[in-house]
Amino acid sequence: MMATGKCFCGAVRYTAKLENRNVSACHCGMCRQWSAGPMFAIFSSTMDIADKSSLGVYRSSEWAERVFCKKCGTPLYNYLLGKDFYEISAETLDDKSGLVLDTEIFVDDKPGYYVFANDTKKMTGAEIIADISAQMRD
Ligand SMILES: [Zn+2]
Ligand SMILES: [Zn+2]
Fold first, then answer.
1. pTM for the structure as a whole
2. Residue 106: is it exposed, middle or buried by C-beta count within 10 angstroms (0-12/13-18/19+)?
3. H-helix or E-strand containing 64?
4. 11: CA distance to ligand 2 center in Å?
5. From ligand 2's centre to the CA of 36, what distance in Å?
6. How many Å lie between the centroid of ligand 1 and the Cα of residue 70?
7. What is the tens place of the pLDDT at every residue in 113-133?
8. From ligand 1's centre to the CA of 76, what distance in Å?
9. 7 in helix, strand or coil?
10. pLDDT value at position 123?
11. How far is CA 25 from CA 29, 42, 46, 88, in A?
């Protein structure tokens, strides 16, 4: 299912092929500091950006890049290196209808000052890293 989205200022616009409309919230320290809260991500196997002149790329770990708008600072997506897999910030989607928060990851890194009432599948950092490593081997 194709979806469009953009950063806060509109300098970066994308088209992506979403796997589904399931949203996962990542509570890891990197996501929280980068995106000013848990990162609400939706997954895509494609990312098509016509004008990349405002794209900023930060290599945040051995296996991922964090991509943002250099003009307005909006975090756009994480790109998992070596696999065409994009974790797009759900808040950048133009159409947020039908999104469902169904998973929370790095729950062991979540600070105590907030908690979600949604009924979600909860995974620790170790569990999700094992999951991603298994996918990377495919
Ligand atoms: Zn922008
Ligand atoms: Zn994270």
1. 0.92
2. buried
3. strand 64-69
4. 25
5. 12
6. 7
7. 999 999 999 999 999 889 877
8. 9
9. coil
10. 97
11. 12, 9, 20, 11
Tell how far CA 52 is from the center of its chain.
Answer: 18
Q: Report the residue count for the chain.
A: 138
The H or E element spanning position 29 is helix 29-35
Q: Which residues of 39-57 are buried (b: 16+ CB within 10 A; e: fewer)?
A: bbbbbbeebebeeeebbee
Q: Are 24 and 102 a contacting pair, CB within 8 Å?
A: yes
Q: Tokens representing 17?
A: 């092929």
Question: Which CATH number is correct for 2-137, 1.10.10.10, 2.170.150.70, 3.20.20.30, 2.60.120.650?
Answer: 2.170.150.70
